[in-house]
């Protein structure tokens, strides 16, 4: 292929098969809405290119540069883009299916509705990226740099963030279900409305983080530090918060039903109208906490420390309520009796367990 054929290539709207463009430059050019099949672009300069529905099938772009490119609607299928650079590119509605993106750089990209599915983005960089309504699914998301990234309404599955730089990242309504975040320093970050269902935060530092309306259902936060974080209306249903430090948090209207709170420190927390039904909170500390109108019915509150806590209208109906220190105000049993307890426990196993305890 000769250089004078480039203009013909760029004006062709059919299929371009098994061509090598190594050593060529496409900088600043517009690519047609055609299909490139098994073509080679290794190391090629594609900076500033514009696409509008261009498709690349089984092509190679190892080390290629798409810096400042406009890749609207571009589709990459089964392509090798290892080490490719997309610095500052606009990637609205771009799609990468089964592509190798190991070590690729998406620094400062702007993307709306971009998808990366069943590929490999291990070691890729999204530093300073602005991703909205994007999906990164089954793509080996680990060791990725998210420094200063802004993610909104993004879904990432199978993410292992334990070795990902996260300084200054902002997440809003991001789905990170079953993600691995053990031991990470997430202090002070904005993570509002994110879905961390079944994620693991063992030993993580979330102090001072913005966690409003986050979903931690069935998440593991044992030994995590969340002091000073804001988490009103957050969901901790069936979460494991064993020995977590959660002092001075805003947990008003949050739901902990079925959670494990054994040994947790909740000193000074705002927990008005919090739902604590059927939790295990043995040895938990609520010193100075505000539990006004909270519901701890059917919970195990053995040896809880309520020193200085406001327990006005705290519902401990059918709970094992044996505090080592009482709080201020009045906790209420709301007419607890054996028949009512049994009637309200729909689960036959739970009914049997409670009857066995009462007989002892």
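^ structure tokens above, recovered residues below v
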């Amino acid at each position: 292929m000769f250089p004078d054929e480039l203009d013909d290539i760029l004006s062709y709207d059919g299929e371009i098969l098994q061509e090598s463009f190594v050593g060529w430059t496409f900088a600043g050019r517009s690519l047609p809405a055609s299909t490139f099949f098994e073509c080679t672009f290794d190391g090629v300069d594609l900076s500033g290119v514009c696409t509008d529905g261009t498709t690349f099938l089984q092509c190679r772009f190892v080390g290629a540069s798409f810096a400042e490119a406009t890749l609207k609607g571009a589709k990459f299928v089964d392509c090798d883009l290892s080490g490719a650079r997309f610095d500052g590119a606009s990637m609205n509605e771009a799609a990468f299916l089964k592509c190798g993106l190991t070590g690729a750089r998406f620094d400062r990209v702007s993307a709306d509705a971009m998808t990366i599915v069943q590929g490999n983005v291990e070691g890729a960089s999204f530093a300073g990226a602005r991703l909205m309504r994007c999906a990164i699914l089954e793509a080996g998301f680990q060791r990725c740099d998210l420094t200063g990234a802004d993610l909104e309404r993004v879904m990432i599955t199978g993410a292992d963030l334990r070795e990902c730089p996260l300084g200054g990242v902002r997440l809003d309504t991001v789905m990170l279900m079953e993600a691995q975040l053990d031991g990470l320093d997430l202090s002070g970050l904005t993570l509002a409305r994110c879905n961390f269902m079944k994620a693991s935060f063992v030993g993580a530092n979330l102090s001072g983080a913005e966690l409003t309306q986050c979903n931690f259902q069935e998440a593991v936060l044992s030994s995590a530090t969340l002091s000073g974080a804001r988490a009103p209306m957050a969901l901790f249903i069936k979460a494991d918060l064993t020995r977590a430090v959660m002092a001075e948090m805003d947990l008003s209207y949050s739901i902990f039903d079925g959670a494990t709170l054994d040994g947790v420190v909740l000193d000074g927390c705002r927990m008005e109208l919090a739902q604590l039904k059927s939790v295990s909170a043995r040895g938990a500390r609520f010193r100075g906490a505000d539990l006004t109108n909270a519901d701890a019915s059917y919970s195990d509150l053995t040896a809880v420390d309520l020193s200085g806590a406001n327990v006005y209208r705290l519902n401990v109906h059918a709970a094992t309520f044996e505090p080592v220190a009482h709080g201020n105000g009045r906790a209420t049993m709301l007419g607890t009796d054996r028949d009512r307890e049994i009637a309200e426990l729909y689960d036959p196993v739970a009914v049997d367990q409670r009857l066995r305890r009462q007989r002892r």
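The chain has a mean pLDDT of 92.
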